[in-house]
Specification:
Number of strands: 17
Strand order of the largest sheet: 4-3-1-2-5
Shape: globular
Oligomer: single chain
Strand content: 15-25%
Structural class: alpha/beta
Amino acid sequence: TAEAIVRLALASGRWFINSNKERTGRPLVVIGKDTRVSGYMVEAALVAGFTSIGMDCRLLGPMPTAGVSYLTQSLRADLGVMISASHNPFHDNGIKLFGPDGSKLADEIEDGISTLAAGSIALSEPTDLGRASRMLDSVGRYVEFAKSTLDPQVRFDGIKVVVDCANGAAYRTAPDTLNDLGAEVIPLAADPDGFNINEGCGAVHPEVMAAAVVAHGADAGIALDGDADRLIVSDENGRIINGDQLLACLASSMHDGGSLLGDGVVGTVMTNGGIETCLADQGLKLHRARVGDRYVLEMMRAGGMNLGGESSGHILMTSLCPSGDGLIAALQMLHILSRAPKPASETFHMFTPKCQRLENLRDMDGAILDRPVIRDALAGIGADLGDAGRILVRPSGTEPLVRVMVEADTEELLQRKMDEIILLLQDESKKIA
């Protein structure tokens, strides 16, 4: 609701004002959004909250999440806000907060903001109210930043690429950047109307992009999600390449070029086990974090690494940008392709993945996983798999569902264990109901 959003703005703004008392002048917050129709309401509510406690607001308009992260740093803002529900349908929305360094907030900071939100928050004096203004060149600034992550001599002349913008935040930035670099661009889902974000397009539906690659005889395709922080790629044959293959490809390129820091890369508990052999052959390790790019980033920082990512296509390259950026990851992949003597079908496929499947059990309360009978049964199934595979069962962080992942050496073993887990959860859920 608008009231809840105003409350969040008051609390988060007050937290940053209180923790930066040495700043002179009014503090600054930058606000970006994707293309959902509800973004107008959320933006207005945030502005009301921030200005009422004396913060100036710079409104970026439709902008990738990574663009908000970058401009928070570039404008020396105290706080950055992205209004987006990422890959979810248009009727959802959410708010992501960034600190002055352009990184998502740590759990303890979010806890502090929650505590403030529950109490009384002091407003500014009338003479100290904040001001709000629109930043008219935000898209251009971000496009120039994205291009600056490549050597100034790099061009993509001769490369034909399909770009699926998911009718989302990158509907201008992605085609503009690739056109500037000389690629022949075939744009898809670049006409947002407030309701069609992620609808049958983008990284959630990469088969649309992959089919267009084949139809247009393109060299590759890229699909972004609603806020453009995740990337899925297709080779020239329409074969889809997920975040695990992208991570392996980038790791190999960076390792060969001497820019990979640390002893390997960070994935998650969902990352396909096939990548481990690929990395080990290069003397590198795969470190597994909890699902979520913030946890990947935390482990990267702790281990001094500069590359990490998720199977879903979130790629973090902290030497280039402080947050996950689907477009910048795509630029790096196209740069690799532009230098390779082989097509994308050979260049981008780095390892043979293990059999893996993810099933979403909708309308199931994640609390079911806390029941002792479920915990014990799942532990038994995992132990039974042994070295032949692994399981991961967890509640979704954004939807009312339980995600079940099974990885195994064979499809037959995978299917048997998947059926066993789903039947277990469904039977227990019926008992609770």
